[in-house]
Amino acid sequence: MDKAMDLIKTKYLIYRISYEGISCRETPRFPVEAIRESVMNVIVHKDYSSGVSIQISMFSAYITFWNFGLLPED
């Protein structure tokens, strides 16, 4: 979980840069807590018996989280 979040934050997450006086402020394009919750959900709800990897795709306007699995039958 922590390794996935570190990778997302350092390599894939887009930051908006603004300046306050001489200080630079970086604000992530997407809320980090929302990404953390989504990563946790995709890990917890993964069907580990399938052998299929979790996929996280990041675009400029949205992020998709996908894992192989079916909803339980009624």
UniProtKB/TrEMBL annotation:
| Name used for this protein in its record | ATP-dependent DNA helicase RecG C-terminal domain-containing protein
